[in-house]
Amino acid sequence: MAKQERRGAGPSNSETDDLPKAKLTLANFKRSMRLFGYLGKHKWKFILGMFFLVGSAGVGLIFPMKSGQMLGYLAENTKPAPQVSGELMQIGLVLLIILLVQAAFSFGRVYLFAQVTENVLKALRQDTFKRLIQMPMSFFSKNQVAELSSRMATDITVISDAFTINIAELIRQTIVGVGGLILLICTTEWAITKWFLFIIPPLTVAAILFSKKIRKFSKTYQEKIAESNVVVGEALTGITNVKTFTNEEYEINKYDKISDTIREFGLKYGIFRGLFFSFVMVFVFGSIFFILWQMLFALKVDGTITAEDFGTFMMLSLFVAGSLGGLPEQIASIQRALGATDRVFELIDGDIENIEFLKDNVVAKQTKGEIEFNSVLFNYPSRPDFKVLNNVSFKANAGETVALVGSSGSGKTTIASLILRFYDPTGGSIVIDGIDSRSMSLTELRKKIALVPQDVILFAGTIKDNIAYGKPNATDAEIEEAARKANAYNFIESFPDKFATLVGERGIQLSGGQRQRIAIARAVLKDPSILILDEATSSLDSESEHLVQEALDKLMVGRTSIVIAHRLATIRNADKIVVLQNGAVQEVGPHQQLIQNENGLYHKLSKMQFELI
């Protein structure tokens, strides 16, 4: 069966930093509020964490006020030393209490938000994967697996950062910034504070203009990052082909080219970010220095303010400037999180197959296995103008072996996909045991069908785990018996770790014949009514082919078997052969009948393979 086996890497810092950002709109916020539906029984922790957050920020504002008062006190006080010492001790004690309270609030906020975040993200990860794994095959034919896995990991990482860091920092910095401005207005002469208020409007306008430009570059940049992940995934997945064709240089050049593109966009993105932050720093801190100059003039020349006013203003202005200077980065992070939330919920809200989770993963009863195609038409959703199957009709009686024969692209694999209901026909019907397959439970149907593909994919884990994939609740005795029937028991027992032997990623530690026999053992354990074989022996050596074919012959007994034939010598004993050309049935019949028709397509294909007898 055709499969996409591309893999992607996990998220890097650059990926999470440069994800596409969503606009800060009410609609986006409403969609993102769905995340709070995952709070569940942890709502009280979130509310308490918010209380600690607001408390920490509020108490934090007292610190610069008291510090400023202390500086002014030291500058102006002319009292005797013992009295000064006592008053300084009082101020120092107040500052110490403030620091301890703020430390307690900060710890409580971080601890509670961490608990809330991990529980929310656990549920979000589970929901996302649960929906992703239930997506129809048409979804995976339109989306690259490497990009999906990379996107899922990266987006959830961004959401995690938003929950644990960015939202809290945005709220804290806003409280400190706005609260500090209010305190400045209330505690400082209007002639001085008015200058501070002139910072906000230009800064806001600049943030809006720059963020739009940055968002555009960021989106393109992340798309290029995703493309580079696909290149890496494909090269590593197909490393055997790369080395066989000595195409290392070709792959390096391909990756270098896309890396150059990423670099160009990254540099442009960096320029705009640099300009933005430079503007913020110059505008904010330049204004502060200007105001300090004005205050020093008022303090030393006019005498309109006191040293305590000066100290308080200086400390508050530093806190306010630091908070306002950090806001753009937090806003950008929130934008990334909004975009990530949208993409995650796109997966969660996508149309999925109607999969049922059966108790003990076992179907109620097996079918007889009769399959009938009635004038079936089909085209893939991505190519509605190209008919893959055109008026296909044939019948496989229960227990029969039916071989599908035809050149590449004739529709053999598509027929197998339709039987498994990876796709539904666009016309006609597929009837199984007298019932239209579209009206059958998808889970019940697939539980009755086993597939032994030509290119077997094993999961990283043990041999036992891979065999048990056909029946997850199987006993050790059942697994061993399945291995014996698949001619796999002897080679498994020859390994030091026997059934606990690790097969490696995609089963790379096993030979092709060994992987085939593990796949057959899976099918044996599943005990299906219908068996689909994508001719499993076509790429094996003679000894492995004999062992695999012997195991297949045992497996096919009493089952309806659909064999996708690549070599005609292997299907001469089939009860029925369906000959396909350009998606249409040309001939149907047993080998001896079809081979005698010298004008038939089967006769011609046999002659081409030098197998005419």
Give the secondary structure arrangement, pairings included.
Elements: H1 13-17, H2 26-32, H3 43-76, H4 81-133, H5 137-142, H6 145-187, H7 190-197, H8 200-237, H9 239-244, H10 248-302, H11 307-348, E1 371-378, E2 389-396, E3 401-406, H12 412-419, E4 427-432, E5 435-436, H13 442-447, E6 449-452, H14 463-468, H15 476-485, H16 489-493, H17 512-526, E7 530-534, H18 542-556, E8 560-564, E9 576-581, E10 584-589, H19 591-595, H20 601-608
Parallel strand pairs: 3-8, 3-9, 6-7, 7-8
Antiparallel strand pairs: 1-2, 1-4, 4-5, 9-10
Report on this model:
With 613 residues, the chain is α/β, with parallel strands linked by helices. It folds into two domains: 23-348, ABC transporter transmembrane region fold (Up-down Bundle); 364-448 and 536-541 and 564-613, Rossmann fold (3-Layer(aba) Sandwich), CATH 3.40.50. It is built from 20 helices and ten strands. The chain has helices at residues 13-17, 26-32, 43-76, 81-133, 137-142, 145-187, 190-197, 200-237, 239-244, 248-302, 307-348, 412-419, 442-447, 463-468, 476-485, 489-493, 512-526, 542-556, 591-595, 601-608; strands at 371-378, 389-396, 401-406, 427-432, 435-436, 449-452, 530-534, 560-564, 576-581, 584-589. The chain has a six-stranded mixed sheet with strand order 6-7-8-3-9-10, with helices on both faces. The chain has a four-stranded antiparallel sheet with strand order 2-1-4-5, covered by helices on one side. Helix 8 (200-237) runs antiparallel to helix 10 (248-302). The chain starts with 12 loop residues before the first helix and ends in a 5-residue tail after the last helix. The model is unreliable at 1-18 (pLDDT under 50).
